[in-house]
Amino acid sequence: GIKLPKGDAARGMLLTDTEHTVEVATVDADGNPVAVSNMEIAIYKIHWKWWWDKS
């Protein structure tokens, strides 16, 4: 699971050029906590605006 910060108070989004803490929990197939030592995570900024998408 991933827990993101609440973000900007006015819009609820994470601001760029600002450091944010992201919490990650790893579990096995039964939902039991599992330690993972070599995890790589990437978070991307997207430029999608839902009100412009006509599909």
Question: What are the defining features of this structure?
Answer:
7% strand; little secondary structure; 0% helix; 55 residues; elongated; 2 strands
How do the strands and helices of this protein lay out in sequence?
Layout: E1 2-3, E2 23-24
Antiparallel strand pairs: 1-2
Range of helix content: under 10%
Distance between the termini: 30 Å
- Runs in which pLDDT lies below 50 for 5 or more consecutive residues are none
- Mean pLDDT value: 86
Pairing-aware structural class of the strands and helices? little secondary structure
Number of helix segments? Answer: 0
What gyration radius follows from the Cα positions, in whole Å?
16 Å
Specify the overall morphology.
elongated
Largest sheet: 2 strands, antiparallel
Please state roughly what percent of the residues sit in beta strands, choosing from under 5%, 5-15%, 15-25%, 25-35%, 35-45% or over 45%. 5-15%
What's the β-strand tally?
2
Order of helices and strands: EE
Strands of the largest sheet, in order across it?
Answer: 1-2
